[in-house]
Amino acid sequence: MRPETEAALAENIAAARGPLRIVGGGTRDIGTPVAGELVETAGMSGITLYEPGALTLVAKAGTPLSEIEAAVAAENQRLAFEPMDHRGLLGTSGTSTIGGCVAANVSGPRRISVGACRDHMLGVRMVDGAGRILKNGGRVMKNVTGYDLVKLMSGSFGTLGVLTEVSLKVLPVAQTQATIILHDVDAVRAVGALSAGLGSPYEVTGAAYDPALREAYLRIEGFEDSVAYRTGELKKVLAGFGEMSVSDDVTLWEGIRDVSVFHGKEGDVWRISVRPSDAPAVLEAAGADAALLDWGGGVIWLRVAEGRDLRTALQGISGHATLVRASAQTRASLAVFHPEDAGVRRLSDALRAKFDPRGILNTGLMG
Asked: Alpha-carbon distance 167 to 16, whole Å?
């Protein structure tokens, strides 16, 4: 099915007699493999409202992310949460959609300073598992009563409902940026430097570490004079951590955003969320073939041997481990998303029972 209107989608879901597999642009094959009739949302496409002065954009869920990025770039604006392009990492093709981006809550390096995708959402329209059309939020940020569908749908991977339209805030593009690179630092010193930078008053918008290159990266963005001043001051903060250089290469952060060091390399890919201070212990315990740290060490990308259950190696370290890339067989045998504790699981089950009473939307994708 490839409905082109919200009403058609609602009719399709209401008439469904079995499980449905919800797909946007087909670029993010993440989660336990799902069986069911294919429902593609890419037919519902188009920007329906864009008010640059109000920093607000409304688009149908199937709108290509590239179309939205081009529209806002023409007004010197951007999606500040820096959504990752998963195609290189996952080896997929297709066209990323804004609905898929929201459904997976895709957020890049700038998340440490501006928040995740869900923090930029203003409103959503959706069809639930009973075929009901629901809406929540609006064109300005406000509190809502009852279920906060804006937050619930961000990161739900189509298990609570199918997005049909999203409204979100955009922000101006920074005039310039600079990246301080610390050279020849181990994981402990790198995480210490990233934490020092993030704890400083100099508004760091990116904090990453490449263990293979032994380089740590701290990004500063804004007006040219401000960036120059803050870069100089931040270098003083980092003076005790080792040799430094400064770069203005924006592609460096595109590579960190998309985990490009893993592209074309064999092995499973895990995404580990931990306290930044635990990052060195994760690297030591994991025994990974390759790694990349982002968000000051709070998120760690690991490439390991196929079929390996990394959670076993990381027992005793508090956090969450998500299997982002693996064969369908491995994703069917290992829990892709980190197992929920009993209390959270009860809440998740209750929400799914409320919004998808027949259990037909991406059944089992999140475990």
From this structure: 28
Rounded CA gap, 259 and 269, in Å?
10
132 domain-assigned: yes
38 and 167, same domain (yes or no): yes
Which residues touch 287 (CB under 8 Å, ≥6 apart)? 304, 313
- Tell me: do 39 and 115 sit in the same domain: yes
Average pLDDT over the chain reads 94
What local confidence, expressed as pLDDT, does residue 144 receive? Answer: 40
Q: How far from chain centre, in Å, is Cα 178? A: 23
DSSP structure class, residue 203: -
Domain that holds residue 323: 260-333
pLDDT digits (tens, 9 = 90+) for 191-233: 999 999 999 999 999 999 999 999 999 999 999 999 999 999 9
Query: DSSP assignment, residue 262?
Result: G
- Residue 354 falls inside a structural domain: no
100-126 mean pLDDT: 96
pLDDT at 139 over 70: no
Q: How far apart are CA 312 and CA 303, in angstroms?
A: 15
Domain end call among 143, 172, 201: 172
Question: Given this model, what pLDDT does residue 141 score?
Answer: 39
> What sign for the dihedral angle of Cα 26, 44, 41, 54?
positive
pLDDT given at position 201? 97
Strands, E, within the chain: which ranges? 20-23, 37-40, 47-51, 56-60, 77-78, 121-128, 133-137, 161-169, 171-172, 176-182, 204-210, 215-222, 244-247, 268-274, 290-294, 299-304, 319-325
d(CA 108, CA 347): 28
- CATH number assigned to the domain comprising residue 324: 3.30.70
Strand, coil or helix: what is 116? coil
The Cα-based distances of 134 to 3, 117, 123, 336, 362 in angstroms read 17, 20, 11, 29, 18
